[in-house]
């Protein structure tokens, strides 16, 4: 499937979660078996070499990262909201539009020197992906890049990641919020 065909599978919901926002709902793409497989194939084609791990951020990032890890023959690193993982963890705070949140990963999930590709469904402001990159780096991992199904370039997240040395590619881009 072409990128235009894949883009047509993403539903736009106006005024969610608040008036003036055009919410880009990737679940309609995930429901389409051929489209989901093609999207993962397109993302995998942008990756040079094989990372040791693909890191997915909660929650839809788990779906994208799992499929991409399987396609690339890599392990899967889950990065969750703080308090959701059993055992010893490291955590990183990040800014939200109103306040902060916190991501965590198991302290032993990423061996020093492991190469890690970040993956998520969507990048907006980049706060979640930046926190994930910082966690991986704190564990001694090497972030080799980030892949997203959707970029909202007007919100600057991909540029923020690039400024932190994380090469970023997205399959689709939508203007606005």
Task: Please describe what this structure looks like.
Pathway: Purine metabolism; AMP biosynthesis via salvage pathway; AMP from adenine: step 1/1. With 177 residues, the chain is of the alpha/beta class. A seven-stranded mixed sheet has the order 5-6-4-3-7-8-9, sandwiched between helices. The protein starts with a helix and ends with a strand. It has helices spanning 3-8, 27-31, 33-45, 60-72, 127-138, 157-163, and strands spanning 11-14, 22-25, 53-57, 75-81, 89-96, 99-106, 115-123, 142-151, 168-173. The chain is globular. 37% of the residues are buried. The model has no long low-confidence stretch (mean pLDDT 96). It has six helices and nine strands. 32% of the residues lie in helices and 34% in strands.
Short structural description:
By secondary structure, the chain is an alpha/beta fold. It is built from 6 helices and 9 strands.
* Backbone CA Rg: 15 Å
> Strands of the biggest beta sheet: in what spatial order?
5-6-4-3-7-8-9
Spatial gap, N to C terminus: 26 Å
Structural class: alpha/beta
Biggest pleated-sheet summary: 7 strands, mixed
CATH class: Alpha Beta
Number of strands: 9
Could you say what the CATH topology is called?
Answer: Rossmann fold
Please tell me the overall pLDDT: 96
Structural domains: how many = 1
- Alpha plus pi helix count: 6
Question: What form results from the Cα inertia axes?
Answer: globular
- The CATH architecture category equals 3-Layer(aba) Sandwich
Task: Summarize the helix and strand pattern as letters.
Answer: HEEHHEHEEEEHEHE
Return residue spans where pLDDT drops below 50 for at least 5 consecutive residues: none
Helix content: 25-40%
Strand content: 25-35%
Organism: Sphingomonas kaistensis
Protein name: Adenine phosphoribosyltransferase
Function: Catalyzes a salvage reaction resulting in the formation of AMP, that is energically less costly than de novo synthesis.
EC number: 2.4.2.7
């Amino acid at each position: 499937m072409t990128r235009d065909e894949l883009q047509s599978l993403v539903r736009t919901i106006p005024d969610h979660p608040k008036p003036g926002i055009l919410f880009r709902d990737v679940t309609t793409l995930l429901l389409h078996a051929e489209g989901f497989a093609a999207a993962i194939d397109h993302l995998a084609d942008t990756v040079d070499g094989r990372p040791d791990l693909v890191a997915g951020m909660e929650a839809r990032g788990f779906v994208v990262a799992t499929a991409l890890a399987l396609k690339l023959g890599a392990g899967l690193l889950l990065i969750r909201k703080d308090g959701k993982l059993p055992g010893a963890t490291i955590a990183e705070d990040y800014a939200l539009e109103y306040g902060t949140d916190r991501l965590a990963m198991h302290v032993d999930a990423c061996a020093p020197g492991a190469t890690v590709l970040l993956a998520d469904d969507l990048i907006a402001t980049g706060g979640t992906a930046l926190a994930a990159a910082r966690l991986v780096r704190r564990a001694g991992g090497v972030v080799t890049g980030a892949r997203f199904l959707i970029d909202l370039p007007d919100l600057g997240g991909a540029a923020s990641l690039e400024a932190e040395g994380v090469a970023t590619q997205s399959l689709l881009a939508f203007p606005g919020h």
